[in-house]
Design goal:
With 260 residues, the chain is an alpha+beta fold. It is built from 8 helices and 8 strands.
Length: 260
């Protein structure tokens, strides 16, 4: 029969070998193409490694993985008071990526959380500087301002903000109805202006036509005959003869009847 009393002694003899094998296996790290490893030696920054096979000395060096792919940050809806004192809810989406792995680990505790909080405050600050009409009509300008400010602030963290897009600008129902009434009033105003401009242009053309006809009386007669031709072509039995107002002035006035 095997001597079980010798088994613990054998296991203790193999324990250093097992520990050595575990340390060697932990020393080899594989980083993907989009990953970098920030290596610290005895707590101090040493270098950035990767991609591929990376060897880390156990118990002396520590490796922190950093993803270099573009991240998408969905900024939650923010309550904003516009420059003309209108309450709106605005949300946006932000695209950013890590450009300097060393800064993203050393300069900030959690660059994802820091970028999220900074984007919320920046969005409220920039949008609050514009009026409601500017928010609706100048989205590209607002996007560029937010992107520029975020890029400047996150540069110290090794972060590059590549794009910012406003997703929704939500208004309450009362404001939506007010905007609809304003748009309808604006359309009516434009219609009246167009109608008045048409009347003005028509009066100018009539004045020019009257001046041309006044130079040649025969032209007025030809115009009269052309009008009669148009009336006859419409299958109408009524013909209207224009009577000059001067003839009405020459008509003798009727004598007043004596009172009975």
């Amino acid at each position: 029969m095997p001597d079980w009393t010798q088994f613990p002694m054998q296991f203790i003899g193999l324990l250093p070998l097992l520990i050595l094998i575990a340390l060697l296996m932990n020393a080899f790290r594989i980083l993907r193409e989009y990953e970098r490893g920030v290596v610290f030696m005895l707590g101090r920054f040493w270098k950035v490694k990767g991609p591929g096979l990376v060897i880390v000395i156990p118990l002396i060096q520590q490796l922190v993985r950093v993803d270099l792919r573009t991240r998408v940050l969905d900024v939650p809806p923010q309550d904003v008071i516009s420059r003309d004192n209108v309450s709106v809810r605005v949300n946006a989406v932000i695209y950013y990526r890590v450009m300097d792995p060393e800064k993203s680990i050393i300069q900030v505790e959690d660059y994802n959380q820091a970028t999220s909080e900074l984007s919320q405050t920046t969005l409220r600050s920039v949008v609050g500087q514009h009026e409601l009409d500017q928010m609706l009509a100048e989205r590209e300008k607002i996007n560029a301002n937010v992107q520029r400010i975020l890029d400047q602030q996150t540069d110290a963290w090794g972060i590059k903000v590549s794009n910012v897009e406003l997703k929704h600008i939500d208004l309450n129902e009362n404001m939506v109805r007010a905007i609809a009434k304003q748009a309808e009033a604006e359309r009516l105003r434009r219609a009246k202006i167009i109608d008045a401009e048409g009347e003005l242009q028509a009066s100018e053309k009539l004045l020019q036509a009257a001046q041309v006809l006044a130079k040649q009386p025969e032209a007025m007669q030809l115009r009269y005959l052309g009008t009669l031709l148009n009336i006859a072509g419409e299958r109408s039995s009524t013909i209207v003869f224009p009577l000059p107002a001067e003839l009405m002035a020459l008509r003798p006035s009727q004598p007043s009847k004596a009172l009975t």
